[in-house]
Specification:
This protein has 121 residues and is mainly β. Helix content is 0%, strand content 58%. The protein has no helices and 11 strands. It has strands at residues 3-7, 10-12, 18-25, 33-39, 46-54, 57-62, 70-75, 80-85, 94-103, 107-111, 115-119. The strands form 2 sheets. Strands 2, 4, 5, 6, 9, 10 and 11 form a 7-stranded mixed sheet that branches. A 4-stranded antiparallel sheet has the order 1-3-8-7, with no helix packed on it. Strand 9 (94-103) and strand 10 (107-111) form a beta hairpin. It starts with a strand and ends with a strand.
């Protein structure tokens, strides 16, 4: 059974940090591009960061709004992806989702259930 389970969300003050985790099971995690997305109330879901592998090396991409503050990483041996979030701002408040996708004859696209991040004083 395919699963992505996020954890690590919570309430944090502006300027604080959180580390989100995404544990995968039921598929070959290392073959998939992993992304973190977020959705704030009344807004569309947006990509925050993504990590893939090219030639054995990880490649990362970030939304402009989080570049320099967030870091995405993965541990394929543990089937886990992380999102380290520093210098958090109130506008980072959202439900954060983990996504894994791969194209192999067709798209395989998996989502977690989300973890809430609230940045407030």
């Amino acid at each position: 059974q395919v699963q992505l389970v996020e954890s690590g969300g919570g309430l944090v003050q502006p300027g604080g940090s959180l580390r989100l985790s995404c544990v995968a099971s039921g598929f070959t995690f290392s073959n998939f591009v992993v992304g973190w997305y977020r959705q704030a109330p009344g807004k569309e879901r947006e990509v925050v960061a993504a990590i893939g592998s090219t030639g054995g090396e990880d490649t990362t991409n970030y939304a402009a709004s989080v570049k320099g503050r967030f870091t995405i990483s993965r541990d394929n041996a543990e089937n886990t992806a992380y999102l380290q979030m520093n210098s958090l701002k109130p506008e980072d408040t959202a439900l954060y989702y983990c996504n894994a996708r791969q194209y192999a004859s067709r798209w395989y696209n998996y989502w977690g259930q989300g973890t809430q991040v609230t940045v407030s004083s």
